[in-house]
Structures are given as C-alpha cells and as structure tokens.
Amino acid sequence: MQFDIAIVGAGIAGNSAAYELARKGYRVIVLEKKKEIGGKICGGLISKRVINLQKTDAILNEIKGAYIHFPNGKEVCIGGEKTHAYVIDRDKFVNEIAEKAMAEGAVYKLNFLVRKVCQNKIYGKEEIKFEYLIGADGAKSKVAELFNMGEISYINAIQGEGKKLEEDFVRVYLDNELFPNFFGWIIPADEKARIGLGCQSKK
After folding, report:
1. CA angle in degrees (0–180, nearest 5) for 75-41-111
2. Cβ distance 113 to 33 under 8 Å?
3. How far are the Cα atoms of 34, 57, 61, 159, 184 from residue 199, in angstroms, in the given order?
4. Is 79 helix (H, G, I), strand (E, B) or coil?
5. Edge-to-edge strand order for the sheet containing 153-163?
6. Pairing relation of β-strands 121-123 and 127-135?
7. SS3 content of the chain, % helix, strand, coil (to 5)
8. pTM above 0.85?
9. How many CA atoms are closer than 13 Å to the CA of 184, on its beta-carbon side?
C-alpha cells in the first residue's frame, strides 16, 4: 500500500502527528522499532498547553510552582497560586494518542527497524512506500542519520523514585559542575517523587 505520510517513531511527537494527519484524511503509517508503544523513563512534566492540545486521563498531579536551588545555596520559589503544569503517566498518555490515531485510520507497525530510506521507500522487515517522511524517532534518530543531518546534541539523563516531599511543587537544582549544561530535579507524581539529573552530550 502507498502511504501519503510515513512517520518513524511512536512517541508523543510521532503519535500526535499521526493523529492530526490521519483525521484530516491522509493515509498515515507509523513505524516503531520497539515491540510496544511506550516504555521510556520520563519526568512526565508537561505544560497546560499540552493538555489543551491533547485531552488525557493520564494526569497524576497538578503543579503549582517550583523551588529553584542555586549552587551558592540560595533558593527561589516561583508560582504557588494556580496550576502551571501537570505530571502525567507517560506510557498511558502516549498510548492514548496512538489509539486516537488508529481510530482515525493510521496504520501502526511495531518491531519495525528502519534500515534504509531511498526514493520514497523505507526498507526494514518489509518495504513501505510513502510520499512524505517524518522522523520522530528521538535524539539518536535513524532518520537524521540516514539523511546526514549532522551531529545531534542530546541530554544524558537518569531518573529514579523516592519519597514525595511536596504535593504540588517541583524542585530544580542548578549546578554546572554536577549537571553540565542541564539540571537536577524532583517532581512529585502520585505516591512517589521522580528524582533525576541530566547533562548535555553529543552524538
């Protein structure tokens, strides 16, 4: 089958694109290298704008503000009066969008590793024909690699879970020695807090 649009990557961006395009009548196929949608570790902190764009039942917590911690020990509190962000169950959220895209006619092929793209054809475990291609396959994008889009900067991050201290405030830790060009965080979710840090790297 000939598709109007092939999307590589079934994350939030790829699924959202699939949904918006499929509901406008385009023939869309989404190709995901993993055997299932989701499964990524994520802080799950999103803005109200995202919720306005994608209605969801995946909300775990509402965030009213943040404490910003600086290397010199100072702390600044911002927000506090109204909801500024939400914490979501990422797996549930991304699958909700995929289900909406499928309901609009988008075709999904999981466990599909893209090996080559040439003359409007994607080669993997089968051949997929398309007119337009969207690479939504993350920081280590195979699409970007195949099209020689240059060196890609991305964030190396690690995250775990711990006891939730605040109900509706995140904590952000700024320290370029500990977190080069990025930061550390504590995000209160449902019964636990998501605790992580990131630093910038290059491909």
Report:
1. 160
2. yes
3. 25, 31, 26, 12, 9
4. strand
5. 75-79, 65-69, 169-173, 184-188, 192-202, 153-163
6. antiparallel
7. 20, 40, 40
8. yes
9. 14
Distance of CA 17 to the CA centre of its chain: 13
- Lateral strand order in the sheet of 85-88: 45-47, 85-88, 59-63
Packed helices 90-103 and 12-22: angle between N→C axes, nearest 10 degrees: 20
Query: CA 68 to CA 172: how far, in whole Å?
Result: 5
Q: What tokens appear for 54 in the block?
A: 């994608």
Is the distance from CB of 63 to CB of 168 less than 8 angstroms? yes
Rounded CA gap, 46 and 43, in Å? 9
Give the CA count within 13 Å in the CB-facing half-sphere of 108: 25
Q: Tens digit of pLDDT for each residue in 52-77?
A: 888 899 999 999 999 999 999 999 99
Tokens standing for residue 149: 């889009």
pLDDT tens, position by position, 103-134 = 999 999 999 999 999 999 999 999 999 999 99
Residue among 98, 133, 119 at smallest CA distance from 3: 133
Displacement of CA 10 from its chain's centroid (Å): 10
Count of other CB atoms within 10 angstroms of residue 15: 29
Cβ pair 114, 31 in contact under 8 A: yes
Calculate the CA 54 to chain-centre distance.
Answer: 13
Q: Are the beta carbons of 106 and 30 closer than 8 angstroms?
A: yes
Per the document, the length of the chain is 203
